[in-house]
Amino acid sequence: MKTWVVRFLSLYAFNIVVLLLIGLLTPARVGIAAIWASVVLTVAEIVVKPLAQRAFQRAAAKSAAERTRASEWLVQAGIVLVVAAIVWVLTLLLSGISVRGWLWAYVLPPVIIAVGWLVYARIDDIVEARTGQLYDSAFGRRSGGSADSATAPATEPGTGTRARQDLDDGLTPEQRRMLDELGKS
């Protein structure tokens, strides 16, 4: 549960910044509506984005063998922009953001959102770690572990993180971290 709350809060804060940038760079009037619009944008990114992206990628995979590497990249970039446009339209419909003009209000914001996704993908581990620390301090938990970590049995020597990394299990460090988080839930 904590993982989802931390992910939502960090993405929410990041989306407020993205929406304020959209308000500055486009004729969209965001203002105070950024607070609610960020909730809508965050939920859309968590729920709608994966579903829409998966559906478009399945459709594009049918003809992937016929495309060159460059055209495949263009198709994937197009999918990201179409999904960003869907998320943007949902955000407009369900929030108080008002827009003027067609080109700058409906074309440029999805590009800014897609760039925001790229930036967030690069910094999400750092942002989520910091948000997790704030979450733990707000709810009285110690940083670096759960509240019941003091009662957990000590691990045997050689079974720590270094030993897990030495395993030849085919998992990346990110996949191991996700599995460890699932075990803590």
- Biggest sheet layout: none
Helix/strand order: HHHHHHH
- Cα-to-Cα separation, first versus last residue: 7 Å
Total strands: the figure is 0
Poorly predicted spans: 143-159
Q: Which percent bin holds the helix content?
A: over 70%
Secondary structure tally, helices: 7
Question: Into which percentage range does the β-strand content fall?
Answer: under 5%
Compute the average pLDDT: 83
Shape: flat
Count of all domains: 1
Return the structural class: mainly alpha
Radius of gyration: 20 Å
Keywords: Membrane, Transmembrane, Transmembrane helix
Biased composition (Low complexity): 150-162
Region (Disordered): 141-185
Biased composition (Basic and acidic residues): 174-185
Provide a descriptive summary of the structure in words.
This protein is mostly helical. It has one domain (about 1-145). Helix content is about 70%, strand content about 0%. The protein is built from seven helices and no strands. It has helices at about 1-25, 35-60, 70-95, 105, 110-140, 160-165, 175-185. Helix 1 crosses helix 2, helix 2 (about 35-60) runs antiparallel to helix 3 and helix 3 packs across helix 5 (about 110-140). Mean pLDDT is about 85; it is low at about 145-160.
